[in-house]
Amino acid sequence: GLSRILVGSVAEMVIRHSPCSVLAVRPDSKVAAFKNVLVPTDFSETATYALDLAGQMVDADGTITLLHVLELPVAFSGEVAPDFARDLDKKSAAALDASAARLKNARVTTRSRIGYPGAQTLSTIEHDPNIDLVVMGSHGRTGIKRVIMGSVAEKVVRHARCPVLVARKRA
Ligand code: ATP
Ligand code: MN
Question: What are the tens digits of pLDDT across the range 20-67?
């Protein structure tokens, strides 16, 4: 297939329907000790499980970057009021800190971005060459358990240049 598109239909089917977590790897990616792990979160139960899993995957002296992407209403065409953006940013930072506090034994840094979650996650990976693993949920708040892969998960799995661990807790 095209080199930018990672996942074939078999892999995608396995990721969609697997009862357990699945690690998707590219042929050219190194799977060694994971030192810089990116965890995109929408604060859903699945994403929280992904964070716990990331805590187990990351190397003892590694770092987890916890990323939340704020989706602004697209219908809005003017400039975003600075107060509104600042308020959102503050809320996001507080939620990220609360989430990061779950991990007692790993170094965690937090980041928030405005935009589309899939695109912002991919751009974070592109801009930080040290990121060697992504751990994320297969669905978010709106997902139907175990059957459907959310659009953010699908996008990241397809296009990320590093391995992606799609976290799923066995029922
Ligand atoms: P959809 O959003 O397509 O309706 P969904 O909400 O069920 O579907 P996704 O949004 O793909 O599923 O969520 C899968 C994973 O993607 C989440 O567990 C989380 O790791 C990540 N994710 C989703 N939204 C965001 C976001 N706004 N910021 C950061 N990560 C996100
Ligand atoms: Mn979602």
Answer: 999 998 877 777 799 999 999 999 999 999 999 999 999 999 999 999
Separation of CA 139 and ligand 2 centre (Å): 7
State residue 1's pLDDT score. 44
- Cα–Cα dist 3/159, whole Å: 9
Q: Does the structure show a pLDDT above 80 at 170?
A: yes
DSSP reduced 3-state for 135: strand
Please list, residue by residue across 118-136, b when 16 or more beta carbons sit within 10 angstroms of its beta carbon and e when fewer do. bebbbebbeeeeebbbbbb
Q: How far apart are CA 103 and CA 52, in angstroms?
A: 7
- Distance in angstroms (rounded) separating the CA atoms of residues 56 and 106: 9
Ligand 1 pocket residues where CB is under 6 Å? 40-42, 44, 46-47, 50, 67-69, 71, 117, 136-137, 139-143, 150-153
pLDDT tops 60 at residue 142: no
